[in-house]
Fold this sequence. Notes:
Strand order of the largest sheet: 3-16-15-10-9-8-7-4
Number of strands: 16
Mean pLDDT: 88
Distance between the termini: 25 Å
Amino acid sequence: xxxAVITREPRRDTSLDRPDFxxxxxxxxxxxxxxxxxxxxxxxxxxxxxxxxxxxxIGAVVTKxxxxxxxxxxxxxxxxxxxxGMLNSIGLQGPGxxxxxxxxxxxxxxxxxxxxxxIAGGSVDEFTKLAQKxxxxxxxxxxxxxxxxxxxxxxxxxxxxxxxxxxxxxxTVRRNTMPSVPVLAKLSPDVTDIVEIARSVVAAGADxxxxxxxxxxxxxxxxxxxxxxxxxxxxxxxxxxxxxxVRCVYQVHAALPDVPILGMGGIRHGVDALEFILxxxxxxxxxxxxxxxxxxxxxxxxxxxxxxLDRGFTSLADAVGYAHxxxxxxxxxxxxxxxxxxxxxxxEPVADVxxx
Length: 356
């Protein structure tokens, strides 16, 4: 007797083939040819991933959040492993917007790589100046406004924790950005009601939402008996946060069904990405998985295409928010009719039905 084991692991992890399937995605009014992007903070501006995947084939590269001035970040140690995830306390380290534009964005533009520039600031005025710096820059697919990074010394800089503060940032960025460039607000799950924050930024002019940023967490080193991170707390990412991220996407899509969502949080395989799409995400970002598999965004895209095709969808757009449909109506058998009983333990192993 064989026992059926349901698995999320796709059959096509290493295969290079993909179906002829419409994977295009709407992100804040701009159509991307593929629904899988990188996630901000996991590969700087994409150079590190270039040897491992074709960056022109994925939806876009989302850059590490750039600030107005150069920033050294938080002290070391800045990373710690956790069960099914990792903590990082980098602290928005970066070269500043001017160096980014000259070096990193130029590199991306010269290669024809679609780019979403993530920006972060410590005040509304900084966000205003960042948007002005980007206003006449060519080669932008969108701007992601990071108002939710937990890796800052001053928690008052986490604008996404308060509706009016979040709205103030998005309002100034939208006013100072070219109308043709979508503005996405990246929100934090560390709030009582993420829908309230989402409503505030959309009302302020956000064209779409990035859900979610990392969760605030910490680890204690039981040998030193002190916090493992020099900054004490850090952002938790990886598969451990996926259920939280899916919940946030589902709740926000239910409340704001017409607002495009870029979903992220613990995506390792195509079936993980499928959860986000069904919950209401128009596209997804892959981040922490690239530390183990730098080719993950391209692989996840292939797996997602197969997962959608296997379920009868003809395009990715048709699956967006499908989990919100009304309950299926199933006819009950007549009381005098005994329902057929199927012993799943005698079925064949699920290699035949496992996710592609």
